[in-house]
Amino acid sequence: ALFMHKPVGSSNELNKAGLHAELDLLTQGNGFAQSFKLRASAAGVKVPDLKYNAENAFIGTIDSSLAARPLPIDDMAVESNEECSLLFDTFLVIPLLQTKGVFTERKFSGNTQTGDNTDYIGEVVDAFAHHVLEETSRTFMLADIQGVVGPDRSITLFDPQAHSSTGDSGEWDQGNEVIEKFCKEHHCNNVCRKLLLTSLREQQVENLSTRHSLTYIMDQ
């Protein structure tokens, strides 16, 4: 599958930056998926195969003179222009996923909506999101988690977004505010407990107490 930004509100530079950010996140997400499986193995917990659709993904460029020029925003024909394959000179290529038949496409959380899934596959993904936060000491979280579940319950995630303490993972990044929101709203499920993940709410209380103590010392 070949990906580019839609023409309205975008440009060559925005398209290029966005696609590079997405490829970076796909790669990072796959790294976190590997560490999640290692954690499960160490805890003696068998979880479905989980990965991001990053294998063989790459960024490509073409001669800019061959790219279709996006039409003006107020042009009524802009929708038809979106059907062109090459709107800009940079594109992202990712393996095409099967989403029909015995494969099910699912959305597990939103960009700022915390996942609260109640079935086993959903609990695994929610625990994965928790794992990423713990792995990064609450400085990075994956968001808008969605993917395809196979007949063997394998999970292939795609189109990642994230929030980080530095706020620079991509145009979707809303920083610490959303990370703190997740920590408040996430309810540890059976998979979290089996993997011995630390309660994010308890960590919040501890961090808040530490900040209050430091403030008191500074005031004195």
UniProtKB/TrEMBL annotation:
Species: Lentinula lateritia
Protein name: Kinase-like domain-containing protein
Family matches, as SUPFAM superfamilies: Protein kinase-like (PK-like) (SSF56112)
Any one Pfam family match given in the protein's UniProt record, by short name: Alpha_kinase
InterPro entries given in the database record: a-kinase_dom, Alpha-type_PK, Kinase-like_dom_sf
Protein origin, superkingdom: Eukaryota
Database matches in CDD domains: Alpha_kinase
Keyword Transferase: yes
Domain Alpha-type protein kinase, residue spans: 1-200
Keywords: ATP-binding, Kinase, Nucleotide-binding, Serine/threonine-protein kinase, Transferase
